[in-house]
Amino acid sequence: MGVLLILIDGCGLGDPDGNRNPMAVARTRWFRCFRSQIVATDGCTIIPTDAALGIPGLPQSATGQTALLTGVNAPLLAGRHLQGFCPPTLAAILAAHSLFRSFALRGGRVACANAFTEPTLRRRRFASVTTVAARTAGVRLRDLADLADGQALYHEFTNRSLRARGFAVPLLSPEQAAGRLVAIAEDCDFTYYEYLQADIAGHAQDMGRAVTVLEELDRFVSALVERLDRSRHLLVLVSDHGNVEDLSSASHTWNPVPTMVWGRGTETLARRTHALTDIAPALLAAWEAATPLVSENAGMRECPERRGGKSLPGRAC
Predict the structure, then answer these.
(1) For position 290, what pLDDT does the model report?
(2) Do residues 91 and 132 make contact, with C-beta atoms less than 8 angstroms apart?
(3) Fewer beta carbons under 10 A from the terminal one: N or C of the chain?
(4) What 8-state DSSP symbol labels residue 110?
């Protein structure tokens, strides 16, 4: 069984108000979900998930993503919700408990599918939660060479933003991007990808941009659902906090976030998930129930990389 976990940054469950919630306006198959209207559709189970974790203040990305990736109440340990980059307190939690590390210790093949620019890869002092979690687990961070070679996705999967900055990378449709991610996930036990555009559109309070983001994201998700073998894979989309669902404010929200689940192990996720801290242990429980453990201390198995249509052994995912 393989697990594909996708973080949609800044996407909560709001009200069906077309004046401030682009989810009420966008033409989507999966994202017409609201606090008052949670229904399973087309094989997707949607679980309202608490992102506040009992801590005062608006939920933020650094602590929310750490809680998601570790199962640890990061804002409680940090004393507050933390935004932006990963401080030492969160880095220590990630180094000990991240899903990257947990899957690797169980013999799983692990991948972070995001491509990062060279300045981001060089940055150590102000690193993101994702890069810290991957590095401390020994997971290779992919770069724009991998992106050009079809082995990674940028956090804006069409690459329009990279091309606008002068990078010579291919322009991708949502369907082409989904095909890349499926190819990576098919070779791995745990694959992680983060998409940041919902949060960016929410902070901008830009209805047109937010609708475009949701409609392209919906096409991306539809292609994933259609192409991924859901008899062998568990696909999970979740967010770290609300934002884009209420454009009346440029800040985050206290709204619950949707955990959207397809495929093998859905019942385990649906039964065990109530808050962001439940995601990591529920994913591990679902995977362990379906996958014989190689060894509790087997270390990271290598994941083949596909180049030129061939599978090559070598670097860990």
Answers:
(1) 87
(2) yes
(3) N
(4) E
Q: Vertex 126, ends 124 and 127: CA angle to 5°?
A: 65
Q: Which two tokens mark 136?
A: 């401390």
Whole-model pTM: value is 0.92
Residue 263 Rama label (left phi>0; alpha psi -120 to 50; beta): left
Tokens 């933003």 belong to residue: 161
Per domain, the residue ranges of the chain are 2-291
Q: Are 129 and 62 in contact (CB under 8 A)?
A: yes
Report whether 20 contacts 249 (CB < 8 A). Answer: no
Annotation: CATH topology of 2-291? Alkaline Phosphatase, subunit A (3.40.720)
Q: How far apart are CA 54 and CA 313, in angstroms?
A: 45
What residues does 260 pair with on adjacent strands?
46, 237
Of 306 and 158, the structure prediction assigns the larger pLDDT to 158
Distance of alpha carbon 111 from alpha carbon 99, whole angstroms: 11
What's phi and psi for 4, nearest 5 deg?
-115, 110
